[in-house]
């Protein structure tokens, strides 16, 4: 935990002084935040205006309330733990979920099975986690969990079952005996006394240990039942389940369901051109409908509005009606559909057209269904989604791209940048011998083209592509067009059909995604070529002056101290006044706390990021005992300071909230487009730079997620329900957290906290969606609507998770006046500009005891180095 020395914010100058002392914004920074005048109440900040009083936005003079949670900023680049409810980062050991997992099976009687089943269904964690669409699936999952409970016997009173100072691994149900909950007084030095007990069969404890790595709130100790004697042994018997078994079973449930739905949806001819990303989106958005035997779903001739997917059981009969020679209607024998089948696809293609069959329920079952309107809301235009899916696959099949080191998210971005080009008969796309001015790859969508080379002619039709050679470098390893290379077309391509349509992917668009064109076809080239290309990239990149080793760094002052390490303000020796933040973490402590993989993932993710609203990783180092991450220094303090100083702790002006919310959205969008999920959005992790713009820091929980991940992590106040329910999560959790953050900026507290609530109660509120807008709130209806959209419990209905993705948030009426182009270029004056006096000024943060500049050596010297075998863990850091 960070050691707080004093709160300098108490003596900070007013915003007027801060603005006067701050570096001047860019020439264009006087641009208004909004494109049009926004009618706010008089108390709110004027458009583009510097603050002249402390009425609305002033850094606080002390700790204030966050819905009952006092918390000053202290994270600064390094994850810190605090005992304050709701603000402690919580996480679970990373889970490698697999479809091949076999749940444990411990023998027990049917009476014991019923006893365990009833007990877990009364418990908050199990009751919510076991909610599912199909009753048959729910029964199967309950049985798997019951099977995974083992009998645990404690023979003597006084034995500690769970320690309050150690992470628990099991959840327990009392079978017989007594368990006492014991704890010292709050200061840890008082009487060790009983604060509660489990004495009735079926009572349980340790449920939060199932969700994430945490100790119980007290020691759980076997007790002595009344009337027992020492000779009786006073045995305590419990049923217990290991947290990894529980988490694997929950993950297995989601993975099997997703795979089953995907395979069934793919059986509909109209959807089988979609790739997995779209199929999984549809799967998650399906509604459920329980049907009984004999029920008619629809009849021949009725309007087709929905398609259906069968569950894990039941039968549906499809029959048609024909007219016999006698003129009488005659029913066909029909087709029987079983589990995992799909039908009714005509609703997708031929909306408003009549049904071709009659669908009758032969056995009661649960169906999954979707209308064309919901499909459009989920994936957008079906035609466009199919085309995008095909483009992704086609790009991966082209040899130049196949021999590259591109990741899946890059193929998605590239496919989205393919433009449409129209041609007419006789028009040349390009001609042999002419200099390549705009290198591009062409995909034939419609029509016919002829490629003409010396002694070689070929025809390009729908599904073919051409222009690949224009994307390769010349003999000097320079690319054609704007990159300055000199290349000429080696064939002519002419339009043969009356009209033709191509998809066109330009080299410029490729460059905007992959950032280094020498990655194109890099696997097919020799070592000398790659080495030379690497030297060119180094010459072109902006790394001049970057510190390349620890010996080049001068240490100035301690910036912060956290659970796993410390942060120093450093600069390059002889490198001028440019300051950095150097995070130092102990390898041994990371391994002991099972956080080594998180540290490596943080380094990997940060190396992929380069955005004005995201903290930049400059370099990394390591020695036998520690890892070092050199990052850009952001000096303006935490966003939390502004929230706590807003309107006498009642929230920030709506227009200021809009500014910070929009900029944070831009940073999240940048990560999401690269399949990076952040998972720890909160005001402490948003710093302000010298111009007052927000910068996202602390990437310890970030992860590249292509579909879903199952690791429980985050800060309780901002957790999305799907994380708590162990159902797998994706980028939707960040939109939920952004909704919580916007709420907090507006109202000064978080949406799910209530006075006196404990951790379990907080999680219940989140899962149940218990929140409301304060009755005395002075915010627009658009603000309320935006928050409501982002705090939808069902991911597929959440704003940001629909077909338009982040664009839906940008297009929301609350955001529509925001000039995002100017915002990302930092051409708008921030609502508040911090006072920063010099490159090493950190007075906008709490001050830490720094000692002398060599303290870091004392810190690292105390860290036990790893063995040679253990060093393998950090080999790729």
Question: What characteristics describe this protein?
Answer:
four-stranded antiparallel sheet; serine/threonine-protein kinase; alpha+beta; ATP binding; Transferase(Phosphotransferase), domain 1; 877 residues; nucleotide-binding; globular
Low-confidence stretches are: 1-30, 32-75, 79-84, 535-542
CATH topology of the largest domain: Transferase(Phosphotransferase), domain 1
| Secondary structure tally: strands | 37
State Rg.
31 Å
The oligomerization state is: single chain
Using the 3D structure, state the CATH architecture of the largest domain: Orthogonal Bundle
Distance between the termini: 25 Å
Shape: globular
Give the spatial strand order of the biggest sheet: 28-29-30-32-31
CATH superfamily annotation of the largest domain: Transferase(Phosphotransferase) domain 1
Number of helices: 25
Sheet-strand content, in percent, reads: 15-25%
Main sheet summary: 5 strands, antiparallel
């Amino acid at each position: 935990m960070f050691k707080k020395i004093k709160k300098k914010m108490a003596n900070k100058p007013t915003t007027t002084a801060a603005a006067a002392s701050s570096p001047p914004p860019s020439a264009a920074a006087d641009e208004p935040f909004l494109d049009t005048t926004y009618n706010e109440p008089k108390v709110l900040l004027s458009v583009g205006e510097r603050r002249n009083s402390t009425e609305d936005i002033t850094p606080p003079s002390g700790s204030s309330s966050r819905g009952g949670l006092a918390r000053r900023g202290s994270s600064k680049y390094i994850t810190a733990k605090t005992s304050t409810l709701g603000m402690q980062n919580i996480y679970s050991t990373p889970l490698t979920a697999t479809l091949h997992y076999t749940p444990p099976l411990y023998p027990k009687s049917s009476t014991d099975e019923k006893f365990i089943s009833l007990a877990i269904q009364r418990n908050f964690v199990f009751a919510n986690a076991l909610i599912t669409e199909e009753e048959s699936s729910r029964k199967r999952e309950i049985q798997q969990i019951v099977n995974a409970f083992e009998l645990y016997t404690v023979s003597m009173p006084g034995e500690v079952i769970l320690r309050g100072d150690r992470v628990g691994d099991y959840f327990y149900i009392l079978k017989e005996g007594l368990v006492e909950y014991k704890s010292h007084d709050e200061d840890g030095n008082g009487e060790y006394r009983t604060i509660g007990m489990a004495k009735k069969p079926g009572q349980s404890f340790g449920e939060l240990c199932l969700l994430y790595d945490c100790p119980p709130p007290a020691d759980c100790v076997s007790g002595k039942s009344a009337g027992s004697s020492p000779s009786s042994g006073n045995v305590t018997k419990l049923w217990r389940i290991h947290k990894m078994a529980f988490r694997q079973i929950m993950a297995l449930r989601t993975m099997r369901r997703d795979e089953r739905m995907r395979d069934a949806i793919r059986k509909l001819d109209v959807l089988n051109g979609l790739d997995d990303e779209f199929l999984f989106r549809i799967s998650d958005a399906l509604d459920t409908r329980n049907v009984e035997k004999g029920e008619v779903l629809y009849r021949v001739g009725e309007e087709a509005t929905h398609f259906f997917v069968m569950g894990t059981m039941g039968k549906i009969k499809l029959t048609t009606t024909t007219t016999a020679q006698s003129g009488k209607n005659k029913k066909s024998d029909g087709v029987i559909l079983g589990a995992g089948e799909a039908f009714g696809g005509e609703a997708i293609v031929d909306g408003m057209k009549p049904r071709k069959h009659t669908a009758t329920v032969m056995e009661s079952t649960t169906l999954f269904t979707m209308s064309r309107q919901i499909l459009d809301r989920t994936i957008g235009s079906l035609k466009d989604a199919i085309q995008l899916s095909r483009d992704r696959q086609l790009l991966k099949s082209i040899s130049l791209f196949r021999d590259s080191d591109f990741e899946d998210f890059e193929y998605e971005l590239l496919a989205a940048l393919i433009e449409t080009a129209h041609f007419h008969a006789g028009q040349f796309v390009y001609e042999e011998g002419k200099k390549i001015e705009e290198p591009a790859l062409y995909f034939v969508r419609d029509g016919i083209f002829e490629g003409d080379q010396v002694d070689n002619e070929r025809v390009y039709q729908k599904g073919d592509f051409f222009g690949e050679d224009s994307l390769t470098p010349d003999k000097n390893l320079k690319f054609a067009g704007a990159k300055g290379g000199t290349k000429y077309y080696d064939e002519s391509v002419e339009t043969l059909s009356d009209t033709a349509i191509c998809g066109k992917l330009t080299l410029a668009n490729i460059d905007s995604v992959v950032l280094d064109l020498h990655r194109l076809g890099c696997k097919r080239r020799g070592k000398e070529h790659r080495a030379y290309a690497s030297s060119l990239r180094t010459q072109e990149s902006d790394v001049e002056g970057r510190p390349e080793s620890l010996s080049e760094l001068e240490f100035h002052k301690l910036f912060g101290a956290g659970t796993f390490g410390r942060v120093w303000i450093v600069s390059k020796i002889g490198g001028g006044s440019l300051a950095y933040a150097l995070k130092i973490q102990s390898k041994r402590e990371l391994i002991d706390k099972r956080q080594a993989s998180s540290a490596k993932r943080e380094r990997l993710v940060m190396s992929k990021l380069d955005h004005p609203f995201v903290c930049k990783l400059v370099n990394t180092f390591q020695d036998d005992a520690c890892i070092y991450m050199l990052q850009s220094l952001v000096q303006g303090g935490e966003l939390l300071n502004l929230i706590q100083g807003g309107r006498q702790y009642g929230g920030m002006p709506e227009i200021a909230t809009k500014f910070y919310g929009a900029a944070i959205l831009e940073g999240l969008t940048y990560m999401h487009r690269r399949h990076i999920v952040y998972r720890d959005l909160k005001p402490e992790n948003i710093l302000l730079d010298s111009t007052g713009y927000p910068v996202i820091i602390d990437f310890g929980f970030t992860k590249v997620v292509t579909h879903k991940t199952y690791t429980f992590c985050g800060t309780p106040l901002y957790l999305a329900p799907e994380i708590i329910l162990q159902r797998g999560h994706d980028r939707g959790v960040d939109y939920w957290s952004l909704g919580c953050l916007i709420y907090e900026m507006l109202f000064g507290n978080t949406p799910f906290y209530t006075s006196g609530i404990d951790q379990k109660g907080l999680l219940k509120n989140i899962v149940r969606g218990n929140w409301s807008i304060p009755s005395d709130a002075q915010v627009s209806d658009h603000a309320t609507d935006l928050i409501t959209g982002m705090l939808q419990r069902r991911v597929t209905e959440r704003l940001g998770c629909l077909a338009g993705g982040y664009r839906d948030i940008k297009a929301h009426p609350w955001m529509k006046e925001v000039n995002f182009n100017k915002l990302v270029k930092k051409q708008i004056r921030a609502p508040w500009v911090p006072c920063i006096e010099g490159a090493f000024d950190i007075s906008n943060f709490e001050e830490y005891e720094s000692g002398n500049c060599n303290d870091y050596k004392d810190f690292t010297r105390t860290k036990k180095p790893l063995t040679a075998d253990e060093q393998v863990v950090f080999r790729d850091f």
